[in-house]
C-alpha cells in the first residue's frame, strides 16, 4: 500500500506511537487501579481507612473537573510540539505529587496525591486522546481496546511492584522510587506527535476551489484541467475578414516567451468598416445660426463665472497668507513671563510661595490680570497627597482594570464550561441514565478495586499480601480475557453496545454481592474473577452505549457534564462510605451498598435495552407482517 492510499484509507499503524500510548496506559492509570496496595500498608502504619479511601476519590474528582479544560487546551495548543509540551507538564505534576508524598505527613498525602496527580493525568490523557483520534481514525475501536488492555496489564503488574518497593524502601520512600518509574514514561511522551501527511494536489484540497487553478501557456504532458490561453496579437481588431485566429492548422502554437496574456490595443474609433468592407467616417453634427447664438451667450456666462472664481481664489490665498504671518508672530513673540526676573524677584523666591501672572491677551475682550499662588507649605502637600489618593480610589489604575477583566473572563469561562452544559443536560431525560452508567464505571474503579485488598486482609483465614496481589492480577487477567473480543466489538454496530453493557452490569452487581459475603479464600477468588469480567465489559462499552443512547448531536454537549457531575457524585458517595468503613465489618457493608446501587442502575438499563429490542425487533416484525398480509 503506497502512501497516498494510506492517507485515503485513514492512515497506517504507527508502531512507535502505538507503543508509547500502550506504555502510558500501563503506568498512569495504575495510580488509581493499584492504590489498594498502598491503602493496606498505610492502614498498618495507623492511617485511618476513610482517609486512604478518599485519596482515589480526590484523584478522580480532579481528573473529571479538569478534563474538559485539558481537552479544549489540547485542541487549541496541540501540534507537533504542543502535545509533547503539555504531556510533559502533566508528567511533571504526577512526579511532583509522588515526591512530595515522601516529605509531607500522612494526613496531607491524599490532597497532594489526588490533586496534583489527577491534574497531571488529565493533561496526559487529553493529549493521548487527541493524538489517537487524529492518527487512528479508521482503527479507533481496536486502538481503544489495546489501551484498555494496557490498563489491565498495569493493574496486574503494579501491585507486585508496589509491594516489593514498600518491603525494600519502606512506605514513604517507595513513593520516590515510584516517581522514578513514572518518569520513565517520558520517552513515550516524546513520541506523541501527529505524522505530517503528504501534500495533496489542488483538486483534493478542501481549502481551495478547482476554478482557481493556475493557468499558463506552457505545454503539459498528460491530462490537466487547465484551459489554454490565446495569443491576442494574431487577432484582427479592424476587420473580421482579416482575422486569422481560426486558421491555425497545428493547434495552438505559441512562442516560448508568450507566457503572459497579451492585452489588446484599443480599437480606433475614427476608422470603421461595415460588412462590405467600406470605411465609415465619423458623423459630423450640423450647425445652425440659432445654435451659434446660444453658444456665444453660453461662452460669455462661462467666462464671467471663471473670473469670479479666480477672484475668490485670490482672496482666499491672501487671507491664508495673513493668517500664516500672524502665526509666525505668535510663535516668535512667545516668551515665559516668569523667566524675566529682576533683583527684587530673587528676594521674593525666599518666601513661602511665589506668584505667577497668568494673562489672557489672546482672548477678546481682554480680562483683568489674574494671579495664582503656588504653595510649597506642608499643609498644601498633605492636601495634594489626599487629593491624589482620592483620585486613585475613584479612578483605579490599569492593573485593577486588568484584574477585573481577567476575573470576568474566568467567570464567563466557568459559565460556558460548567453551568451552561449542566442546565442543558439536566433538561434532557436521557442524561440521567447516562449519568448512572458513568457513575457505575467510576465507582468500580475508585471504590471496588481499592477495597478489594482490604477485604482480603479481613477474610478468615487471613490472606497474605502475596496471594492478594495474585488475586488482583487475576482480576486484570479476566479483564484482558474479555478484551479479546475487541475485534468483534469494533465490527459491532453502536446500537448493540448497550446490550453488552447490560450484561457487564449484571456481572459486576453479582461480583459486588459475592465480595460483600466473602468469608474465605475461595469465595473471594470467585468474586475477583467475576468482577474482572464485569469491569472489562463496562469500561469497554459504557461510552459507546451512552453516545448511542443520547444521540450523536447531544453527545458533545453532555460529555463534559457527565465527567464532572459523575466525579462529584462519586465524591459524595465516598464521603458517605467513610462513616461505615471504620466500623467492624464496614468494608463488606460498603461493598453491599455498592451492590445495591449497581442493581438499581442495572434495572434502569435493562428496561432501556428491553425497549430498544421491542422497537427495533418486535415492532418492526409486526409491521412487516402487516404489509405482507395486505
Automatic annotation (TrEMBL):
It comes from the Eukaryota. InterPro entries: MFS (IPR011701), MFS_trans_sf (IPR036259), Proton-linked_MCT (IPR050327). The keyword Transmembrane applies. Residues 279-304 are annotated as: Disordered. Gene3D superfamilies: MFS general substrate transporter like domains. The chain crosses the membrane at residues 12-38, 44-65, 85-106, 112-133, 145-166, 172-192, 434-456, 468-490, 497-518, 524-542, 562-582, 594-616. Pfam families: MFS_1. Keywords: Membrane, Transmembrane, Transmembrane helix. The keyword Protein transport does not apply. Residues 284-303 have a biased composition (Acidic residues). This is Uncharacterized protein. It comes from Loxostege sticticalis (Beet webworm moth).
Amino acid at each position: 500500500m503506497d502512501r497516498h492510499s494510506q492517507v485515503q484509507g485513514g492512515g497506517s499503524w504507527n508502531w512507535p506511537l502505538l507503543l508509547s500510548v500502550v506504555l502510558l496506559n500501563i503506568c498512569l492509570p495504575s495510580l488509581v487501579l493499584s492504590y489498594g496496595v498502598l491503602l493496606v500498608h498505610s492502614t498498618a502504619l495507623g492511617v485511618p481507612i476513610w482517609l486512604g479511601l478518599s485519596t482515589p476519590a480526590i484523584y478522580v474528582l480532579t481528573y473529571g473537573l479538569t478534563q474538559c479544560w485539558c481537552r479544549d487546551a489540547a485542541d487549541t495548543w496541540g501540534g507537533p510540539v504542543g502535545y509533547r509540551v503539555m504531556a510533559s507538564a502533566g508528567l511533571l505534576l504526577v512526579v511532583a505529587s509522588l515526591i512530595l508524598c515522601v516529605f509531607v505527613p500522612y494526613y496531607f498525602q491524599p490532597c497532594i496525591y489526588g490533586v496534583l496527580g489527577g491534574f497531571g493525568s488529565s493533561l496526559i490523557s487529553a493529549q493521548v486522546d487527541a493524538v489517537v483520534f487524529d492518527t487512528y481514525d479508521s482503527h479507533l475501536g481496536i486502538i481503544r481496546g489495546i489501551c484498555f488492555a494496557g490498563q489491565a496489564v498495569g493493574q496486574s503488574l503494579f501491585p507486585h511492584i508496589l509491594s516489593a518497593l514498600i518491603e525494600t524502601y519502606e512506605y514513604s520512600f517507595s513513593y520516590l522510587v515510584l516517581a522514578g518509574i513514572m518518569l520513565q514514561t517520558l520517552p513515550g511522551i516524546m513520541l506523541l506527535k501527529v505524522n505530517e501527511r503528504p501534500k495533496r494536489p489542488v483538486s483534493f484540497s478542501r481549502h481551495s476551489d478547482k476554478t482557481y487553478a493556475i493557468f499558463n501557456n506552457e505545454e503539459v504532458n498528460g491530462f490537466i484541467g487547465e484551459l489554454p490561453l490565446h495569443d491576442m496579437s494574431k487577432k484582427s481588431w479592424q476587420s473580421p475578414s482579416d482575422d486569422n485566429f481560426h486558421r491555425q492548422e497545428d493547434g495552438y502554437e505559441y512562442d516560448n516567451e508568450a507566457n503572459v496574456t497579451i492585452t489588446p490595443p484599443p480599437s480606433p474609433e475614427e476608422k470603421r468598416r461595415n460588412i462590405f468592407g467600406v470605411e465609415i467616417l465619423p458623423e459630423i453634427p450640423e450647425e445652425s445660426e440659432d445654435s451659434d447664438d446660444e453658444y456665444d451667450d453660453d461662452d460669455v456666462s462661462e467666462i464671467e463665472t471663471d473670473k469670479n472664481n479666480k477672484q475668490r481664489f485670490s482672496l482666499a490665498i491672501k487671507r491664508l497668507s495673513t493668517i500664516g504671518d500672524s502665526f509666525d508672530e505668535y510663535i516668535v513673540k512667545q516668551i515665559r513671563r516668569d523667566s524675566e526676573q529682576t533683583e527684587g524677584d530673587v528676594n521674593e523666591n525666599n518666601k513661602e510661595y511665589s506668584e505667577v501672572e497668568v494673562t489672557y491677551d489672546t482672548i477678546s475682550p481682554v480680562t483683568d490680570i489674574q494671579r495664582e499662588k503656588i504653595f510649597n507649605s506642608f499643609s498644601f502637600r498633605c492636601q495634594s497627597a489626599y487629593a491624589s489618593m482620592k483620585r486613585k480610589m475613584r479612578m483605579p489604575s490599569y492593573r485593577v482594570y486588568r484584574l477585573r477583566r481577567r476575573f470576568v473572563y474566568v467567570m464567563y469561562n466557568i459559565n460556558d464550561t460548567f453551568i451552561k452544559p449542566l442546565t442543558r443536560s439536566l433538561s434532557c431525560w436521557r442524561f440521567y441514565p447516562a449519568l448512572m452508567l458513568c457513575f457505575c464505571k467510576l465507582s468500580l474503579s475508585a471504590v471496588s478495586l481499592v477495597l478489594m485488598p482490604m477485604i482480603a486482609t479481613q477474610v478468615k483465614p487471613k490472606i497474605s499480601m502475596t496471594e492478594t496481589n495474585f488475586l488482583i492480577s487475576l482480576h486484570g487477567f479476566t479483564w484482558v480475557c474479555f478484551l479479546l473480543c475487541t475485534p468483534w466489538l469494533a465490527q459491532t454496530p453502536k446500537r448493540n453496545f448497550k446490550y453488552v453493557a447490560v450484561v457487564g452490569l449484571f456481572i459486576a452487581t453479582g461480583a459486588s454481592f459475592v465480595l460483600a459475603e466473602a468469608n474465605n479464600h475461595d469465595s473471594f477468588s470467585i468474586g475477583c474473577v467475576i468482577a474482572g469480567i464485569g469491569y472489562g465489559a463496562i469500561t469497554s462499552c459504557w461510552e459507546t452505549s451512552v453516545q448511542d443512547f443520547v444521540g450523536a448531536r447531544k453527545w458533545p454537549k453532555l460529555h463534559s457534564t457527565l465527567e464532572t457531575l459523575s466525579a462529584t457524585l462519586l465524591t459524595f458517595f465516598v464521603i458517605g462510605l467513610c462513616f461505615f468503613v471504620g466500623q467492624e465489618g464496614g468494608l463488606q457493608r460498603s461493598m453491599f451498598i455498592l451492590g445495591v446501587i449497581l442493581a438499581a442502575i442495572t434495572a434502569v438499563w435493562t428496561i432501556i435495552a428491553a425497549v430498544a429490542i421491542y422497537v427495533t425487533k418486535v415492532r418492526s416484525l409486526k409491521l412487516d407482517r402487516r404489509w405482507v398480509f395486505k
